[in-house]
Amino acid sequence: MPFRFLRLASLLFLAAILSSGCSKEAIGESTANGDSAAAEEDDAAPATDVRLPVVAQEARDGDLVLHVNTSGRVRSRASSRVTVEVTGAVQSVLVKPGDRVRAGQPLVRLDPRPFDLAVREAQHELDLANLRYREEIVPESLATGRAPSEERRAGALLKAGVEGAQVRLERAQLDQERSVIRAPFTGRVEDVLVAAGERVTAGTPVTSVIDVGDVWVEAAVLEHDLPLIKEGASAVVVSAGARDRQAIGRVISVLPAVDSVARAGRALVRVTGGTELRPGMYADVRLEATRLQNRRIVPARAIIERDGRPLVFVVKDGRAQWVYVNPGRSNGEETELLPDEATGVIPVEAGDEVIVDGHLTLTHDAPVRVVAPGGDRSP
């Protein structure tokens, strides 16, 4: 009995050991399979591709235009205070302030009746003078059978008063023509100073007409900048009332006198047609001063500094590569790049995309994507 019990106990103990080993192997195999599956899932999952959005512009070869920035007063090319040249009563006013008028268009009419009568009276006097002239020479011609000589004709004309009557007729016709006051040139009516029924005399102003098609800007130029401004140079004019609209003009003259107090001269800029500029406005003016030809040019915003050295980021194969540069002169919008002092080579080529926005915190070789200005900037 004891022997049997001991044998049964040994068998049970051996079975327990075998069962425990199988469970551990199963657990180990299950864990290994789980780790393998997780690894396979990690391998199958795509890596996240984060490219930073940036705005870029191309470097170019061309002319760099340096400017002188100043201010000026807008003036009309032509402005006229229209006055009456004859005395009379205003019959009708044909325009109002702000109207556009053409050269020769009637603005004000005077009562035509006195002028019509004056013309008729002058014509009558001329007819009488011609009659007296014929009475002077015809009987003599019939009596002698010869035409009067030139001296005889001249004396007869003078005695009859033909020339004086002719002059009075022409003067009356001129006054009749002047009774209609017309626009001296194409422009706009600034004001109207008379009303129908009002009696006016010669020299009375009736309206003002201003030519707003072409305007001049009288720009102040400091005396040390005057030698840089040349006739024919381009100019950009911006008024305070229309900051988003630039008017393009040309320097037509650099005036010779210099204000000894302001130490500035004046340049006249002509701006033609279709602008928001109006006479009397003050405007900001950017004058072309010097043109540097055949330069490698990048936007001024592209140049930043790292560790005290200027550089630009160039987009290559979807990555931002920083390139140290040697900047030259700038007009505030564009900057020329000079050859490297060591190699004599400009490291940025024409056509390279240089980053102008989104590059302040970039690192070298950062993945980027170029977007349009104002476009989607989300990563």
List the helices and strands and how they pair.
Layout: H1 2-44, E1 52-58, E2 60-76, E3 79-83, E4 88-93, E5 100-101, E6 106-110, H2 113-144, H3 150-160, H4 162-178, E7 180-182, E8 187-192, E9 199-200, E10 205-210, E11 214-222, E12 234-239, E13 247-254, E14 264-272, E15 282-299, E16 304-306, E17 309-316, E18 319-324, E19 326-330, E20 334-338, E21 353-357, E22 366-370
Parallel strand pairs: 1-22
Antiparallel strand pairs: 1-21, 2-11, 2-15, 3-10, 4-6, 4-9, 5-8, 6-7, 8-10, 11-14, 12-13, 12-15, 13-14, 15-20, 16-17, 17-18, 18-22, 19-20
Helix pairs in contact: 2-3, 2-4
Keywords:
single chain; 379 residues; alpha+beta; 6-stranded mixed β-sheet; elongated
Structure description:
- With 379 residues, this protein is α+β, with helices and mostly antiparallel strands.
- The protein has helices spanning 2-44, 113-144, 150-160, 162-178; strands at 52-58, 60-76, 79-83, 88-93, 100-101, 106-110, 180-182, 187-192, 199-200, 205-210, 214-222, 234-239, 247-254, 264-272, 282-299, 304-306, 309-316, 319-324, 326-330, 334-338, 353-357, 366-370.
- The protein is built from 4 helices and 22 strands.
- β19 and β20 (334-338) form a beta hairpin.
- Mean pLDDT is 84; it is low at 1-47.
